What we know:
alpha+beta; Nuclear Transport Factor 2, Chain: A; 3 helices
Amino acid sequence: MRNYMDYPFQVNARGRTGITSRNDHVRDMIEQVLFTSPGERVNRPDFGCGLLQMVFGLPNGALIATVQYSVHGALQRWLGDIIEVQDVVVRQHESQLSVQVVYVRLDTGEILTDTFETG
């Protein structure tokens, strides 16, 4: 079994780098794409999808569609060799967004669903 570095970075009780499973590692990568704003990374200024800025949009169908489109596109661009996005479901409640991503891990064919929430 292969180990993957956990995100966010942490040190375990033995003083070593925290590790995680493959499924959790993939989820961590999705989280990084969603919550990284374009321009935030020095050597990859276009990395991310800017989800946190979208929280401040007006609560309407256009915002939901924009978030779905942005999330789907960013995940396909940055993780397209690891996952295939099947569906993105976005819900807004006041100033909080909930993004559910349904995807297939390309290495195993396993279908997974993860939910991410802003603030």
